[in-house]
Amino acid sequence: MKVPLFRRLSISFFVTVIGSILITSLISNDMIDKRFNEYLSNEHKRKITKVISLVEEIFVQEMDLQSVASYRELARVAILEDLYIEIKNPEGKVFFSSGREHLLHKKMMGHMSRPMMGMGWRKSLGQYMEENYSLTKDGKTTGTLIIGYFGQWNLTERDVGFKDTLNRAFLISITAALIFGLMMSILLSKQLTTPLIKLTGIANEMREGNLTVRADADTNTLEIDQLSKAMNHLAETLQQQEMLRKRLTTDMAHELRTPLTTLKSHMEAFIDGVWEPTEERFADCYEEVERLTKLVGNLQNLAKLEQAALQLNKEPFDLSQEIIKITEVMEPQFRKKNIPIELDLIQELRVLMDRDKIKQILFNLLSNAYKYTHEGGRVEIKLRKEDKGVVLTIKDNGIGISEKDLPYIFERFYRGDVSRSRETGGAGIGLAIVKTLVEAHGGKIKAESTPGMGSTFTITFPQNILSA
């Protein structure tokens, strides 16, 4: 069963909060409990030491311990420290006892206070315990001191109350933290899922065919913002592809209609006897058939574009010399329009590439430069080696490319020449083939152009195309 992201995130955040709180509480409680027990142990030792010192001091000064001041002092300390104090002489006779009434009262109140608190956290004061200490003077035993108390460390009402308060504080803190964690998990989950839900709705609109919709996720989350921008880019790309598809259909229908209409009219004229089947008229028909054949060939080339990267026959050769050979082959054609080809090439640049594909790249780019450069213009070819790889630049000073057409010139069957002139328009796949072949070699191509000033095509091949 699919679980909504909001619920999954909320549960995950809340479980994380619970786990963190439990771990922190257990560790903190354990450490505080150990430190508190250590404190109680030290306090207990301090009380016992205080009583022993007081008894020894009094016992040394007043052997019979019968003075009212001494008796009251020991009784006051016993009540103050919640202790039972008893002193015996060496024969075992008790000549001082603080009494246990205050301890019994403390024990009874300790048991009564537990249900009154209502929380069940208060601990029992513990079992009654006694410790015996020998009293000595001049190296001789003069008596025995007995100290009695409840519990391991003689917990006082304040100690028990402090521990109750500490436990209650932990309980309140955990409850508050859980409530806060639940609220924050819901809030964070909502902040993350709300823009995603919005983006999902926009994606569904795109799937239904509405490519004009754009994502506008109001979020500070970097990844969601990048996803929003990526979806907008995807929508723009799909919209452009849809536009190109429609334009391709229109262009191909126009290109096919003209020769078919010409052939149909010629055939009807022959059938009706209006025209005599002369050699010139058959030549006209043949020319239209050639046009149709060329269009079909372009469609076949389009189908082969995706296979170009899988059919590279790489071999080592000198790229500089190959460029020189191609320019020498095309130079007579350029000479007809008085267009010189200027070369600025690094010499002896050996590469490992598909020689035929490189020839096709150069031929297509130079053919475009020839078509769109006026008579008396110029074409420059530069080849250089840089840190980022091998850079090939072909620049002309022809008619240039408009700003609105520049982003689409590498798309299949895209032609900026709206008049679709047969002399200059072509079929619109030359640059698409160039881009595919360049990328098949791991390179990149970009175009820069200013209408009326010319165009510059820059191809960058990676370092790994170099041959030793």
UniProtKB/TrEMBL annotation:
Keyword hit for Transmembrane: yes
Single GO biological process annotation from the record: cellular response to phosphate starvation
Name of the protein described by the UniProt record: histidine kinase
Residue span(s) of domain HAMP: 190-243
Domain Histidine kinase: start-end pairs: 251-465
MF-aspect GO terms: phosphoprotein phosphatase activity; phosphorelay sensor kinase activity
Pfam families reported in the protein's UniProt record: HAMP, HATPase_c, HisKA
Segments passing through the bilayer: 6-27, 169-188
Annotated catalysed reactions: ATP + protein L-histidine = ADP + protein N-phospho-L-histidine
GO cellular component, one term: plasma membrane
Keywords noted in UniProt: Kinase, Membrane, Phosphoprotein, Transferase, Transmembrane, Transmembrane helix, Two-component regulatory system
CDD domains: HAMP, HATPase, HisKA
E.C. number(s) listed in UniProt: 2.7.13.3
Compartment(s) of residence: Membrane
